[in-house]
Design brief:
Jelly Rolls, single chain, 3 domains, seven-stranded antiparallel sheet, Rossmann fold, about 550 residues, Type 1 dockerin domain, seven-stranded parallel sheet, alpha/beta
Length: about 550
């Protein structure tokens, strides 16, 4: 690997057996914080101000390979994290520079989730106090993995232990499905390397690569061949650092979910957070990004680059249930998610949504994700899962019409539909024009022996005005059928945006800006009385608010 060194970590096995796990520990300098602009952190902070999440209160587990097999160094330097409570679950050991840098991106000042605490740190060995061994997974034991109290496990290491790989992956998938934590794991560095067996070849974890594409990618060959990895990428100089960046974004989202009871299903279901992160990923950085109906992810970049801004708005867009006779309400067509249980008797769920007249939905991205179910019989582990497919169809009056797009991989446990373009000079390509659409989730339990499986569905898009004269309520920026003070606040919070603004952000005329022209459109609808308006501020209050907005310096995003 260029700019890196590879260590072979000796791990002690029961019964005196000794195997070697190849572990990549990348020795490159830590990267500056400019990447926070690229992952939507800066844009979200500008929008939320003092309400910006930090991951506060989210317990995290950091699993580390030994940087030095002689000294068994695996722990981060305590002095670098004076505000964190760090527990060394595999005993004391010398400081690892690798672990310290990972910690900086994971719960320190270098990352997006610097408030995550407390921290459990494990040594990734099979010893009695190692993560693979007695401290957690209990490999080669009739014991099941320990119950995980952390909300996220971060694994910035890769390995291969031959015939035991599948048992390790089965045990981790079992624990994820049982306990609901998010497992974020690294692929290898260097694009000439194959997808590693550990831990990136698992089903229920989230595998991470680099935005520069300099990582292992392609098809799995262990425990189910032919699945695409990685799932997502981040703009860091090593997969060891990209992985904790994704974990830190997840920590921010979990803090938000903890603080709002309607988001409860996003707290302890790994499928939901995985779907929200992948649906929010951006593709415009990758001109070659592609998917097919049978290959849901790009061969090299997965779902795309992690983006906190997009995923935050998917999460806070809210949870919605499927319905055979109702559209997703209001702005739910642009940002939202669903967590449901599929059964053999109910093999499909329907999500209808309507793109309003005069508008279009661009860069529509939806992810369907579900876990593999693992069963244990003493020392034997086996996995089973249904297949799901995802269809996007035209519809009229809740009757399905022609198929617009579909994702129907027979091997992956994720499906992805993306109606967008990686070329910023062609923003209208593949957009969804005005009308009703159906998103259909179809399950097949044949030969699985399962009675049910939970799935998560997440979606986002940019709703833009293409023909202002056809828009029914130009000032109804939250699409609730009313023009009121809430819509004004939408416009106010995005005032000064000079490009790529959406209707939901207050762009009433489709020019990509949020400015005084859009306020006048809101004002005309508000005064026109063409809707049932509630919670509207008094005129005097509006004048004060407007004055404060116009005196602000426009923001550029």
């Amino acid at each position: 690997m260029t700019g890196a060194h590879r260590l072979h970590l000796a791990v002690c096995w029961p019964r005196g057996a000794l195997l070697l796990a190849a572990v990549a520990l990348v020795a490159v300098p830590a990267q500056g914080q400019s990447y926070l602009d690229d992952i939507g952190y800066t844009a979200l902070k500008a929008e939320l101000g003092g309400n910006m999440p930090t991951g506060a209160g989210i317990r995290i587990s950091q699993i580390e390979a030994e940087e030095d097999s002689n000294t068994h160094a695996y722990v981060p330097a305590r002095s670098s994290f004076p505000n964190n409570t760090i527990s060394y679950r595999s005993g004391t050991a010398p400081v690892s520079n690798h672990a310290t840098t990972v910690g900086g991106y994971l719960y320190g000042s270098s990352g997006a989730g610097g408030g995550m605490n407390p921290v459990d740190v494990y040594d990734a060995t099979t010893n009695t106090n190692g993560w693979l061994g007695g401290a957690y997974l209990h490999l080669l034991s009739p014991l099941a993995p320990n119950v995980e109290s952390s909300r996220i496990q971060n694994d910035s290491w890769i390995g291969d232990v031959g015939s035991f790989n599948e048992e390790i992956l089965d045990r981790l998938d079992y624990a994820i499905d049982r306990d609901g934590f998010l497992s974020v794991v690294a692929v290898n560095n260097d694009s000439i390397n194959p997808v590693p067996a550990l831990l990136a070849s698992g089903y229920n974890s989230l595998s991470v690569g680099r935005s520069d594409g300099f990582h292992s990618f392609g098809y799995t060959s262990v425990d189910g061949a032919g699945r695409i990895k990685p799932d997502i990428v981040a703009p860091l100089t090593a997969t060891s650092w990209a992985t904790p960046v994704v974990s830190s974004v997840a920590g921010d989202l979990l803090q938000v979910a903890d603080g709002y009871s309607p988001l409860a299903d996003a707290r302890h279901h790994a499928q939901v957070m995985k779907a929200i992160l992948m649906a929010g990923a951006t593709k415009e950085q990758f001109p070659t990004w592609t998917r097919t109906p049978t290959r849901p992810l790009d061969f090299q970049y997965g779902a795309g680059q992690v983006n906190l801004y997009n995923s935050y708005h998917i999460l806070t867009g809210g949870e919605y249930a499927p319905s055979p006779s109702a559209n997703l309400p209001g702005a739910a067509l642009a940002d939202g998610w669903s967590f449901q249980t599929a059964t053999p008797d109910a093999n499909q769920e329907l999500y209808y949504f309507n793109v309003p007249a005069g508008m279009a939905l661009r860069n529509y991205s939806t992810i369907l994700d579900w876990n593999r179910t693992i069963t244990q019989n003493d020392m034997d582990w086996s996995g089973s899962m249904p297949t799901f497919s995802l269809q996007l169809q035209n519809s009229s009056n809740f009757v399905a019409g022609s198929t617009v797009d579909q994702s129907q991989s027979a091997v992956d446990n994720v499906q992805h539909i993306y109606r967008g373009t990686t070329d910023p000079n062609q923003p209208a390509a593949n957009e969804l024009t005005s009308g009703q659409y159906l998103l259909r989730v179809i399950s097949n339990f044949t030969s699985t022996g399962l009675s049910s499986t939970d799935y998560a569905l997440a979606w986002r898009g940019s709703l833009v005005v293409e023909n202002p004269s056809q828009v029914a309520l130009p000032g109804d920026f939250n699409l609730d059928g009313k023009v009121d003070g809430v819509d004004f606040l939408n416009w106010q919070s995005h005032y000064g945006t000079t490009s790529n603004a959406t209707f939901l952000q207050g762009d009433a005329n489709g020019d990509g800006k949020v400015d005084g022209v859009d306020f006048l459109a809101w004002q005309a609808s508000y005064r026109g009385g063409g809707s049932a308006m509630t919670v509207a501020p008094e005129p005097a209050s509006l004048l004060i608010l407007l004055a404060s907005v116009l005196l602000r310096r426009p923001q550029r995003r």
